[in-house]
TrEMBL record, chain A:
InterPro entries: 4Fe4S_Fe-S-bd (IPR017896), 4Fe4S_Fe_S_CS (IPR017900), Helical_ferredxn (IPR009051). It comes from the Bacteria. Residues 219-251, 299-327 form the 4Fe-4S ferredoxin-type domain. Keywords: Iron, Iron-sulfur, Metal-binding. This is 4Fe-4S dicluster domain-containing protein. The keyword Amino-acid biosynthesis does not apply. It holds the Pfam family Fer4_22. It comes from Geomonas propionica.
From TrEMBL, chain B:
Residues 14-136 form the F420-non-reducing hydrogenase iron-sulfur subunit D domain. This is Hydrogenase iron-sulfur subunit. InterPro entries: MvhD/FlpD. Pfam families: FlpD (PF02662). It comes from Geomonas propionica. Keywords: Iron, Iron-sulfur, Metal-binding, Oxidoreductase.
Automatic annotation (TrEMBL), chain C:
Keywords: Oxidoreductase. Coiled coil: none annotated. This is CoB--CoM heterodisulfide reductase iron-sulfur subunit B family protein. It comes from the Bacteria. Pfam families: CCG. It comes from Geomonas propionica.
From TrEMBL, chain E:
This is 4Fe-4S dicluster domain-containing protein. InterPro entries: 4Fe4S_Fe-S-bd, 4Fe4S_Fe_S_CS, Helical_ferredxn. The keyword Iron applies. The keyword Iron applies. Keywords: Iron, Iron-sulfur, Metal-binding. Transmembrane segments: none annotated. Residues 194-216, 247-277 form the 4Fe-4S ferredoxin-type domain.
């Protein structure tokens, strides 16, 4: 049962959800950049640019407290975070390359260790994805098996139509529930023609072939070639919708402080630095190799998924112009 | 001399980073001379102002100081010859930086107090304490300490007091029609 | 900018004297610069710098006079060339003073209704010739070297003093004039009174002082064997040239007149009194002469102590 | 978890009157890491210290904080007590709740609150503190003395008499320095050479002194107690071991008209020469620049006439390396040559004085030589130009000194006195002569100095004119001196037969280069800088190097000798122990993280930081890092504040300690 | 004299200009690799996407023939030379393509003993400017797409390089946007300034791109990575972010060459160069220090004068 929602009603939906005391998150202009941030009104929604950071931070915040501790009368008192206070959340506006990331990450977060911080947030959230009609020469979602109209990860999926409205498809029960609760904002009908998608410059990748190549090329001059120019920052990982490494730090003093979990990146030289001083990934080529291996081999080995949505953020942001799509294409070509 | 028994509404936290040879000794002299000054100041002793890292000042503000004093030997009197000269440049630069990011420099005082200047120590400490007292608590860094990225406590930004009551929501629904 | 390719060019502040009693200085300066192909553009509408007396009477006035002249000069391209030592001193002093004293500067700027041109470079003719045009190039340009001419280079009080203001040369032991003379082919003599005062503007109020002081200078130059004296100041020129005969009348034989010898010993002497006339040249006159400028256009006729016999004797005319 | 003991002192009632010490002790007990706390009437008393020692044992304390008076008062006391109890003394600290609290505040509540805070943050300091061991440095008990003037001689003799070996290095062919040139000395007018030459001989004969003349310092390495000094022995062209000092070579040398430096160029010497008859050693050198043999290869007379065959034209410069534990720098001074402005120097010349062009304008040292019985005139005052006895002599003081506009602002200290002396010597020798002195002030702060000066003015008829000279010129055979008399308010001209200038005292040529080799600092005039103007006037900032004499600043002979003996005493203090013990508050480098930007080295006032190469097992250079020589480090910590990565850390004041204290605020 | 009169000022820099430099770089790089003057050349290669370029270390003649220079060659390549950081300089002499602003970094690194001039062959580029971020990359440089730092460039000429490619050309009438922004911030009331920076720093995600791309951030142990003691919280929270950026500005004071790479690479668009520029301005005013093209003995915060300003000290 395709539904239609006008742009105005989409914004009204946000207004209503805010009034319902839900946390509504969507692309919003913050200073000079568009970021996923809490929306206070429908007018905040900014859909003309891909946010600089992916929407993963909704489930996997940049930094979060996991416990606090204090020594009192010789004994250490530990206080946990009350996860039940996490709010009901609606994420509105992610394109498939962002909306698709929980569909990838859920696997690892509920694997051998259940990350209740992540999972609780996931449980309480509804994702309203929007098909992507923009894109530039860094985009390569099609190459990694996604598409501008991929519904994976979305609970409700909107497709922009030429008259400015959106056709809606409830992908999950959560999506259905959201529509059902606000039915008068939606209209029945086929609607206008959809806005066409943009062509992507990167060829379709044979992910199986790439994985095979990676299996056989743990040692390869390619890694050194890339590492020659990689400066080892974390920009690519931090803005990536799929990267999910984190570090845990106690901040404060030994007697009184907070244990915090925050984003980390495998490109950092200290990422695998052991307390002993030994560092198994002591040089940048090993670190960059790990990034590719993790995304296109290890994660697939474990969970049968590729740890990349092709959003192209890392290509745009890399300080030294490392182009993962180009690297994959080279491997693909053999 | 400061009459200490007056109770104030606000007692600022003042941290003093001092060198051991001149200012610490000057503060000792103020003590042996039984001079009186506000009790707000907490003194941290360093061998030399040259040892004092701008990070310490930053950290003191972060940890709740309302005012910071850095004090050492007069130029030419440094026990280590040139430590205070290096410190002077370092802090001149640091002041400019703090001012540029919007820190009120009235909360940060530098002084030369020699071992013979017990009276000057009292003056400097009293003046800074009273000035900061009139300015009130330093909000900037303390607020920052408690701020988070929105996603950390996602939901904190939602004001529960406005939790909907149905008539209002109903009205909103109706208006959209 | 490659040196040598670009033509040097200056703005020019002649000052009152150079349009009156020191006209020779002005015309010889213009003639010299023309001969050297150096541009010289007179500042339009300039007026008196206040000279040496004004600052004794009203400091603000004297500073404002100079400041206004400087701002007029700012309108003309090129560093400001000044020939008169007194004008040079006043202009430089004003710049120095106003740079040091902000409140004075503000007062002056109100008075002249505009900013004081404190950074307009002010250059004396001597430094332009010796440094900017350059001694080597000057020597190359000489057409008629002043061979055999023994010259006492006379600096006077103002050219180098006080040291922080003119910054022309060593304050008490300069050599720029001597260097210049050597470049022109003349022979600078070593003499004792090149830095002493000639009496300056006492020439009107207390001529007696001037006669005494200028006499000492003339005597010293004669004693050192000089044929003539070279000056860079119209006032010095006036005192040494116009009053030369008067001095001779007043003092007669040399050596009896050196001022106050309180712990005096016997004075030497014994040789025949030296009463030679000493022509007084402006630096630009001698330089222009050496550059081959026609002597008729250098104002030799309008001075009192006639230089022509000497120049003829040295075959320079 | 640490076990710290906190001991709160009442100091009689000095603390307890305003601070509730019991509460402070109680609060201290609740601080994490504190295992024991108590308060006591007098912690510094014997029972108090015993209490501390007992508590350390009973409660197995691993750190101690005494909250009492200023650490400047009793830190040593309690550290000793802690050490006696088996603790590392550096794990004992003091919280100053007296000078910084009870004595300066009246409100009991607030003072108590403050005392608690002070204790809290000092507990953090103890908790994060580390055991430190005193630094010991072995000491080589040999001293190097640079310079063989009166300063060097005095220092060398004192150290040598104390039984330590001394190496003395002198640049000139003979020791003696300027004092050997002087005629008579103020204020006693005793003959300078008569008191100087015996000391020179003592140096030569002293079994503990090795004398290297005609030698210079080439290189200095190492640090206090352990210097390695390379000495360059310039080729003398005469074998010292063979020469008997008979002097035949000098009398036979065909080239005899070389101006003698010792007589300020007013006497003559041959090309092979000793600077003066009483020279030590009495071995001649060949002045190769003026020797016909060296210039044209023809002559060789000296070699022919030398009985023992000591003359050696083939001699080369040689080098020796001396291990010494301490260095005394006594390189002395030179007199300002005042003609034109030296190239590139901030100092202006006095071209207007005609010095150097008018022969009868001389400096003070030349006058000394004229007045000296061993001088070029045999002690008669005769002027250089024509050898006539001058009847009017003008002395000018402060030529170059105290003349900011000429580039030197300091007072040369000795000129007032020696000019007074000169007028007397002149008056004694030329009875009908008249001396005039131009002066600014007469500075006579010394024992018997003012009496001496007054004698010159009142009894010896010198005419003192307060004012300066502007210009001098030759007129006939006279020098016209133009000056001012500011007391009379008039200009003055004097026709003098001779003018003597008291020119400024300046450091020796090359003083800066030597300082760079030694790693000591110098001021803008190149005078060497002492470590502290008041309290360390003899020590250099660089440990183990001491200053004596005019190389540090203008000085007269008694001051020079005093300082030389003081420097010697410092050397002997250093040599009194086999090992040097130092406070372990010094910086250390974390070589793993140091990246060798050497910002620390650039800010180190002690020159304690060196560059160290880190090599792998194959000997390949991995990187260069900073290394702190603990013997030299002064412990200021400027390096650590400068190091961006904090790869250098000052023991006793680590970032960890300081951050913990800030955290506890 | 009109200072602008004898400069070659134009309204656009056409691709041909960059092509000429490209040719010159290739020729030089090929030559020094052929005659084994160097073991490698750090330069730029074209990126996959139109109008992009990427740093590259080339070691063969074939690779060297592909080197380019275009307005997309934004990187300061000196970051690749320090041992502690990237250490492409493993053995032997290395060639490097350097713009004027990069040359300042090279000079600074020499001052700090991280590089030796004799280990480098510097192929200087007479650079008229490079692209800003998020601009149209058409191949032609104009007022519309030039980087903010290039608008006030004073080092178009790579003085001190071994060879220099290009002739002096620059865009005319560029507004000094950064200077204007500085003035705007300086004119704000103190509280507003604090709000301005708080807003920017709060956005920081601590990806460390600013640090990693900075030629002067070559510490092996960054203060902000240290946790015993922790001077700067490593978690990306507003407090730690503020401390981090202040500490970094302080550590760069007197060293920063003004290449503005930190600002360029910031994925969160924090105007970091303003901090560095403010420090540079202060050090110029107080100690007359300016980062230059030749190494100096000591930076302004590693030396002192006895009469330094102390008007702020009581």
């Amino acid at each position: 049962m395709p539904q239609i929602i006008t742009e105005q009603n989409l914004r009204s939906l946000i207004d209503l959800l805010v009034k319902e005391a839900k946390l509504v998150v969507g692309p919003k202009l913050s200073g000079s950049v568009v970021l996923y941030e809490p929306l206070t009104a429908g007018s905040d929604l900014t859909l003309d640019a891909l946010p600089r950071r992916s929407s993963k931070e909704l489930f996997f915040p940049i930094c979060e407290d996991i416990l606090s501790y204090k020594r009192e009368n010789g004994a250490m008192k530990v206080a946990d975070v009350d996860r039940s206070k996490f709010p009901e959340t609606v994420l509105i506006g992610p394109p498939p390359c962002d909306a698709g990331s929980p569909a990838i990450l859920d696997a690892v977060m509920s694997w051998d260790y259940k990350d209740e911080f992540y999972l609780e947030r996931r449980r309480k959230s509804t994702i309203v994805g929007i098909a992507c009609t923009k894109g530039d020469d860094a985009c390569f979602c099609r190459a990694v098996g996604l598409a501008p109209d991929a519904e994976a990860g979305s609970d409700l999926f909107l497709t922009p139509l030429k008259d400015g409205s959106y056709s809606c498809k409830a992908v999950t029960e959560k999506g259905e529930a959201l529509v059902a609760a606000h039915l008068n904002l939606f209209a029945e009908g086929a609607g206008a023609e959809p806005v066409p998608f943009v062509d992507q410059a990167v060829e379709k990748l044979d992910l199986v072939k790439i994985k095979k190549w990676l299996e056989e090329h743990f040692e390869d001059p390619l890694w050194e070639k890339i590492a020659d120019i990689c400066v080892g920052c974390g920009a690519c990982a931090f803005i990536c919708p799929a990267c999910h490494c984190f570090d845990i730090n106690d901040e404060g003093s030994t007697d009184d402080g907070v244990r915090r979990k925050h984003w980390d990146a495998c490109g950092f030289s200290k990422f695998t630095n052991h307390a002993s001083g030994h560092n198994p990934r002591d040089v940048q080529n090993k670190r960059y190799r790990n990034r590719i291996m993790h995304k296109f081999k290890y994660y697939d080995d474990k969970f049968g998924k590729t740890l990349c949505t092709g959003c192209g953020r890392c290509i745009r942001a890399c300080p030294v112009g490392i182009d993962i799509a180009d690297i994959l294409a080279q491997i693909n070509r053999g | 001399m400061h009459a200490e028994h007056i109770k104030h509404d606000f007692e600022p936290k003042i941290v003093a980073f001092v060198c051991t040879w001149c200012t610490y000794a000057g503060a000792d002299l103020a003590g042996t001379s039984r001079m009186q000054y506000p009790s707000n100041v907490r003194v941290l002793k360093f061998p030399c102002t040259g040892r004092i890292d701008p990070v310490f000042i930053l950290r003191a503000f972060q940890k709740g100081a309302d005012g910071v004093l850095v004090s050492g030997c007069h130029p030419g009197d440094c026990h280590y010859m040139a430590g205070n000269f290096h410190a002077r440049r370092r802090f001149a630069a640091f002041r400019a930086l703090l001012s540029f990011v919007g820190v009120d420099l009235n909360r940060l005082q530098f002084s030369w107090v020699s071992a013979a200047e017990g009276g000057k120590w009292v003056d400097v400490v009293t003046e800074l304490t009273e000035r900061v007292r009139t300015m009130g608590p330093m909000p900037e860094f303390k607020e920052l300490e408690h701020e988070e990225q929105w996603s950390t406590f996602a939901g904190a930004s939602v004001d529960k007091s406005t939790v909907l009551n149905s008539p209002e929501l109903k009205e909103a629904y109706d208006s959209i029609g | 900018m490659t040196p040598g390719k670009k033509r040097l060019s200056y703005s020019y502040y002649p000052g009152c004297s150079l349009h009156a009693s020191g006209r020779e200085y002005d015309i010889s300066t213009r003639a010299l610069f023309k001969a050297l192909n150096v541009g010289l553009k007179e500042v339009p509408d300039w007026f008196c710098c206040g000279a040496t007396p004004a600052h004794n009477v009203d400091e603000l006035l004297s500073l404002s006079l100079c400041a206004k002249n400087l701002s007029l000069a700012e309108e003309v391209e090129g560093d400001l060339a000044v020939a008169c030592a007194a004008c040079f001193s006043r202009l430089k002093t004003t710049q120095h003073h106003l740079k040091e004293d902000d409140s004075k500067r503000k007062q002056v700027e109100v008075a002249i209704d505009g900013p004081a041109a404190l950074n307009k470079p002010v250059k004396h003719i001597l430094e332009i010739l010796a440094r900017e045009y350059g001694l080597a190039k000057l020597e190359e340009s000489v057409k008629k070297p002043l061979l055999g001419l023994k010259v006492a280079a006379y600096y006077g009080c103002l050219l180098t003093r006080p040291p922080e203001v003119p910054e022309l040369d060593d304050c008490e032991d300069p050599s720029i004039m001597e260097d210049l003379l050597r470049a022109l082919g003349a022979e600078p003599v070593k003499w004792s009174h090149r830095m002493e005062c000639c009496g300056a503007n006492f020439t009107l109020s207390r001529p007696g002082v001037v006669l005494k002081l200028s006499n000492a200078i003339l005597e010293s130059a004669r004693f050192a064997g000089a044929d003539c004296i070279m000056v860079a100041c119209p006032l010095c020129h006036g005192n040494l040239d116009i009053r030369q005969k008067e001095i001779k009348d007043a003092y007669g034989a040399p050596d009896s007149t050196l001022f106050g010898n309180i712990f005096g010993s016997e004075l030497h002497g014994g040789s025949a009194p030296d009463q030679r006339d000493l022509p007084i040249f402006y630096v630009t006159q001698l330089a222009a002469l050496a550059m081959g400028v026609a002597s008729g256009s250098l104002g030799f006729e309008s001075v009192i102590t006639d230089p022509k016999p000497l120049l003829r004797d040295k075959q320079l005319l | 978890m640490s076990r710290i003991g906190v001991f709160v002192c009442h100091c009689g009632e000095n603390i307890s009157r305003t601070v509730d010490v019991e509460q402070v002790a109680k609060a201290a007990g609740e601080i994490p890491g504190v295992a024991y706390s108590c308060d006591y009437k007098y912690m510094c008393s014997d029972p108090g210290q015993t209490l501390l020692k007992k508590a350390v044992a009973e409660h197995k304390l691993d750190g101690v904080l005494v909250a009492a008076c200023s650490p400047r008062m009793h830190e040593k006391t309690f550290r000793k007590a802690a050490e006696a109890a088996g603790l590392n003394p550096y794990l004992c600290e003091m919280a100053n709740i007296r000078e910084h609290c009870s004595w300066v505040h009246e409100d009991r509540d607030m003072a108590t609150a403050k005392a608690k805070d002070i204790v809290k943050l000092m507990v953090e300091r103890v908790r994060k503190g580390k055991s430190l061991a005193p630094i010991t440095v072995p000491v080589t008990k040999r001293a190097l003395v640079i310079g063989g003037g009166i300063a060097g001689i005095q220092a060398a003799l004192d150290v040598a008499d104390a039984g330590h070996h001394v190496i003395m290095v002198e640049r000139d062919p003979s020791i003696g320095g300027h004092m050997a040139q002087l005629s008579e000395t103020f204020p006693t007018l005793d003959c300078s050479q008569c008191i100087m030459t015996p000391k020179m001989v003592d140096v030569a004969n002293h079994p503990n002194i090795t004398l290297y003349t005609y030698s210079e310092i080439e290189k200095v390495e190492g640090y206090i107690g352990n210097f390695q000094v390379t000495v360059k022995h310039k080729a003398r062209s005469v074998d010292e071991s063979k020469c008997t000092g008979c002097g035949v070579c000098m009398t036979k040398c065909p080239k005899k008209k070389i101006p003698n430096e010792f007589d300020q160029g007013h006497g003559m010497r041959p090309a092979i020469y000793v600077p003066f008859p009483q020279a030590v050693p009495n071995t001649p050198v060949i002045d190769r620049e003026n020797c016909t043999m060296f210039q044209s290869g023809k002559c060789g007379v000296c070699a022919k006439v030398c009985g023992p065959g000591a003359v050696d034209y083939e001699q080369k410069d040689t080098f020796t390396v001396e291990d010494v534990g301490a260095i005394v720098v006594a390189t002395g001074f030179k007199l300002y040559t005042i003609d034109r402005k030296p190239e590139g120097s901030p100092i202006q010349g006095y071209g207007e004085f005609g010095y150097g062009t008018i022969p009868d304008i001389i400096d003070g040292m030349t006058f000394e030589r004229l007045a000296s019985a061993s001088g070029p005139t045999g002690g008669k005052i005769l002027r250089p130009s024509d050898g006539k006895e001058p009847k009017q002599v003008v002395f000018i003081q402060c030529v170059g000194s105290r003349a900011r506009e000429k580039g030197i602002s300091y007072c040369s200290k000795v000129c007032c006195m020696y000019t007074a002396k000169h007028t007397m010597l002149y008056h004694h020798k030329v009875h009908d002569g008249q001396a005039y002195v131009f002066f600014m002030d007469a500075r006579t702060p010394g024992k018997g100095y003012d009496e001496f000066w007054r004698r010159a003015v009142e009894e010896e008829e010198a005419v003192y004119i307060r004012g300066m000279v502007s210009r001098m010129y030759q007129r006939g055979d006279k020098i016209v001196v133009m000056g001012s008399d500011i007391q009379v308010g008039t200009q003055v001209e004097i026709e003098a037969d001779l003018v003597v200038l008291a020119t400024a005292v300046q450091p020796q040529d090359g003083a800066d280069l030597l300082a760079q080799k030694l790693g000591i600092s110098y001021d803008k005039y190149n005078f060497y800088s002492e470590a502290h103007a008041k309290l360390k006037p003899v020590e250099c900032a660089t440990a183990g190097i001491y200053l004596a004499g005019a190389c540090q600043g203008p000085k007269d002979i008694p001051d020079t000798v005093s300082q030389a003996s003081a420097a010697a005493a410092k050397v002997m203090t250093l040599f009194a122990k086999d090992k040097l013990e130092r406070d372990p508050v010094v910086a250390k480098v974390n070589e793993k993280y140091c990246v060798g930007c050497f910002a620390c080295k650039k800010v180190c006032a002690y020159g304690a930081i060196e560059e160290k190469e880190i090599r792998d097992r194959q000997g390949n250079l991995v990187k260069k890092v900073a290394y702190v020589n603990p013997g030299v480090c002064g412990g200021c910590g400027t390096c650590q504040a400068t190091c961006p990565s904090k790869s250098i850390e000052l023991d006793g004041y680590t970032d960890e300690q300081i951050m913990a204290m800030i955290e506890a605020l | 004299m009109n200072a602008k009169a004898n400069k070659n000022q134009v309204t656009s820099i056409e691709p041909a200009y960059y092509q000429a430099i490209t040719e010159a770089i290739r020729k030089e790089a090929v030559q020094i690799l052929k005659d084994e003057t160097v073991v490698g050349v750090v330069g730029y290669l074209p990126g996959r996407r139109k109008g992009t370029a990427s740093p590259a270390l080339v070691t063969t003649v074939e690779e060297a023939e592909k080197l380019i220079f275009s307005p997309a060659c934004v990187n300061n390549l000196s970051v690749y030379l320090t041992k502690a950081k990237k250490g492409v300089l493993k053995q032997g002499k290395v060639g490097i393509v350097a713009k004027g602003c990069d040359m300042r970094a090279l000079a600074g690194l020499m001052t700090e003993s991280q590089l030796q001039r004799e280990d480098l062959f510097i192929i200087g580029v007479v650079c008229p400017g490079v692209y800003g971020f998020g601009v149209e990359r058409t191949g032609t440089l104009t007022e519309a797409n030039i980087a903010r730092k290039c608008r006030e460039c004073t080092v178009h000429m790579p003085e001190g390089s071994d060879v220099a490619a290009g002739t002096h050309t620059e865009l005319a009438d560029l507004t000094p946007e950064e200077a204007e922004e500085m003035a705007r911030i300086e004119a704000m009331p103190q509280a507003e300034r604090w709000a301005f920076w708080k807003e920017h720093f709060s956005r920081c995600i601590r990806c460390m791109a600013c640090r990693q791309v900075c030629p002067f951030c070559y510490c092996e142990q960054c203060l902000c990575d240290k946790n015993r003691p922790q001077a700067v919280e490593s978690s990306p929270r507003p407090a730690g972010n503020m401390a981090w950026h202040l500490v970094r500005a302080m550590h760069l004071a007197g060293r920063c060459g003004g290449c503005a790479e930190c600002e360029r690479v910031c994925p969160m668009d924090i105007p970091l160069n303003l901090l560095n520029r403010r420090m540079a301005q202060e050090l110029k005013e107080l100690y007359d220090f300016e980062a230059g093209l030749t190494p100096v003995e000591k930076g302004p915060l590693n030396e002192y004068k006895e009469n330094d300003d102390q008007s702020f000290i009581k």
